[in-house]
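dumping this here so i dont lose it
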């Protein structure tokens, strides 16, 4: 990488990790260094392999592994119109591995996820969480709020995930995280927005979402507005600090079949990439990408899309940092 003494990044990420056949070598996202050393990181890829909150098709517990495997073809090179040096030259990124959670106990898992994510935020590191089902978002937002306060939420999804729990003593499933987050003051509802909402399941709850003051753009509205106008509406709503939650089922099952609750007439893969890229410059301090379910993913097309979206997340973070290569190469 650099001609002088090895930097922090070079010590963690030897050149040979990027050589050889892409199907071999270190098991991590984009072959990034596997490390729990937050002192030498700007960003941490964190697996959250929990799908005990689904009420239909399970399998998202295998999502983090599938996304990492699908990332094998990605390279640390910049794309035209994005960061000058590529995100891995502007940022020190580690793969933090998977959180050690209690897969069959949802209450304990929510507590554990929050507990394990708080040190990541406390270290000033931006986490990108790989789910898992969307129930994990409540634990992630609790950890986020401890570090940054209530979030302005950008939420891409086919479903609002704003259902009120039927039993307050059993509040957790993948349809409740943002209702719980609103009730707990973890998100600033009036400065949050959901994009891609559709389907008969969502229709049952949209009046409550509207009454709560949460802005949303349905998939049908998005089709009429287009990418640029949708981005303008997002930017008009959100305020720092921002949290981005992306459920892969916001994308049409033609492009992302590997998910637990697919809904027809969704976004294309090109549109979701354009939307994420269009968030450049926003102060996003936390990310999750959830509901990738490999058992329903023929030819790995869902996981490949998810891996590319994580790369786009890295570009967003790089855009808020010094994009010269001096930071990474100098180890400062």
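and the seq i came up w/
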């Amino acid at each position: 990488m650099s001609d002088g003494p090895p930097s922090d990044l070079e010590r963690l990420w030897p050149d040979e990790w990027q050589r050889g056949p892409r199907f071999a070598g270190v098991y991590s996202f984009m072959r990034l260094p596997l490390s729990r050393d937050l002192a030498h990181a700007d960003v941490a890829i964190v697996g959250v392999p929990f799908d005990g909150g689904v009420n239909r098709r399970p399998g998202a517990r295998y999502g983090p592994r599938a996304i990492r495997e699908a990332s094998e073809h990605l390279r640390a090179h910049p794309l035209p119109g994005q960061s000058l040096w590529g995100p891995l030259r502007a940022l020190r990124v580690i793969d933090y591995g998977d959180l050690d959670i209690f897969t069959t106990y949802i209450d304990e898992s929510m507590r554990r996820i929050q507990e394990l994510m708080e040190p990541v935020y406390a270290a000033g590191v931006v986490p990108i969480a790989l789910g898992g089902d969307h129930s994990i978002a409540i634990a992630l937002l609790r950890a986020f709020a401890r570090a940054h306060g209530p979030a302005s939420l950008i939420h891409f999804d086919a479903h609002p995930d704003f259902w009120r729990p039927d039993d307050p003593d059993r509040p957790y499933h993948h349809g409740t995280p943002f209702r719980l987050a609103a009730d707990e003051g973890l998100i600033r509802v009036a400065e949050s927005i959901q994009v891609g909402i559709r389907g008969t399941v969502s229709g049952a709850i949209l009046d409550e979402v509207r009454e709560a003051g949460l802005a949303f753009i349905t998939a049908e509205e998005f089709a009429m507005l287009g990418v640029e106008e949708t981005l303008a509406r997002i930017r008009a709503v959100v305020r720092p600090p921002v949290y981005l939650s992306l459920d892969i089922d916001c994308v049409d099952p033609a492009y992302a079949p590997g998910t637990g609750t697919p809904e027809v007439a969704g976004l294309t893969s090109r549109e979701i990439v354009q939307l994420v890229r269009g968030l450049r410059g926003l102060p996003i301090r936390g990310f999750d990408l959830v509901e990738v379910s490999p058992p329903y993913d023929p030819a790995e097309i869902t996981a490949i899309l998810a891996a590319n979206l994580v790369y786009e997340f890295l570009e967003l973070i790089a855009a808020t940092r010094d994009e010269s290569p001096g930071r990474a190469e100098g180890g400062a």
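Residues 7 and 329 are 6 Å apart (CA to CA).
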